[in-house]
Each structure stands twice: as structure tokens, then as C-alpha cells.
Amino acid sequence: MNGGRRNFYLKILGSILVLGGLFLLAFPYAQSAYDQWAHPTAEVEPAEETPVPKEPTAATSPEDQSRDFLPISGRLVIPSLELDLEVGYGVEEEDLKEGPGFYPQSGYPSTGNVSIAGHRNAYGNPFWHLNELKPGDEIELYYDDEHYIYSVDEVYVTHSRDWSVVDPTSEPAITLTTCHPLHPVNGQYDRLIVRGYLQ
Asked: Is the pTM of this model over 0.90?
């Protein structure tokens, strides 16, 4: 092998090694970008304003009417989806990494609109199949040493900033919120809502 050809091959080998080194340096960034593209994290933002509670209905007892929603955890059971989840308190991103969380402005389960947010496509995907719920399906909530059973009334999609879904209701309700669709083309999510009423 003459010197010119040998130098040529050494230059190619050097270029390959340099490119390989650059690839190794860039790989973690490329992997992170791919993960964000393939599994985007849904944003769940807190409401801008805390809703003002409406007057309690006449059917509730004075004891129930005086109850405020407590910053404690609970348990959500949806038999038709084979879901049994612990529900924490709070809907900030850090809260929802641990699983579904109660909105701080929730009403007490026996009198108001108890609202829960959760991810569909991140952090264990707890609400992945929420869109499969149908009117009449049961949602069970264990909270403050009580057991509540709600019947699904409607499942629908609304704008991501439609905070009216967590407003107080005229009868005891449960509202589950999550992102929709699972993988938006433009990166913008709407909100999937499940609303049920106390049986």
C-alpha cells in the first residue's frame, strides 16, 4: 500500500472516529427529544380563579353543608376499566407525577363537584382508557372515611382552558379531567371530561 493511499484511509478513519464521537455526545439530547415527541407530557394547569361555591341544595344536611374539602388523599375505583387508583391532593405537574390528584377547589363529595385530574399518556398513564367510559358506568370514590358511588352522565371533549368543568354543581357530582387526544399532531391538547352524579 503506497503512502498516498494509506494517508487517504487514515483520513477516512479519522473522520469516522470524529463523527462517532459527535454522535455519542449528541445521543442523549436526541434520545430526550425523541422521548418528548413519542410520549409528550400533558400539561395540567391549575384554574386561574378559584370558583365561588354556589348555595348548597336543600337536600343536604347542615352537617354536610358546613364541610369543606380537605387536602387529603382518597381512592378512585372504576370497575368497568378495572382501575383502582390512589388520588393525591393537587394538580400541579409535580403532584400528577405521583398519580391523579384532587383539584384544590373541589366540593365535598356528598354536596359538591369533587374534581380529579390525571395523565393519559405520562407517568403510568392512569387515565389512558378514560374515553371508554359510558353513561351509566359506576365511579367509586373513597374519601374521608366515606364511600361514594357516582353514575357516569356524560363523556365529552372541551377546550384545555375551559375551567367551568370544575365549577360548583347544583347536585353532588364527580368530574374527571385528562388530556385529549393521546398524541396531538400540533402539540396542543384539549381536555377530556367525564362527569358523573352521586347515586
From this structure: no
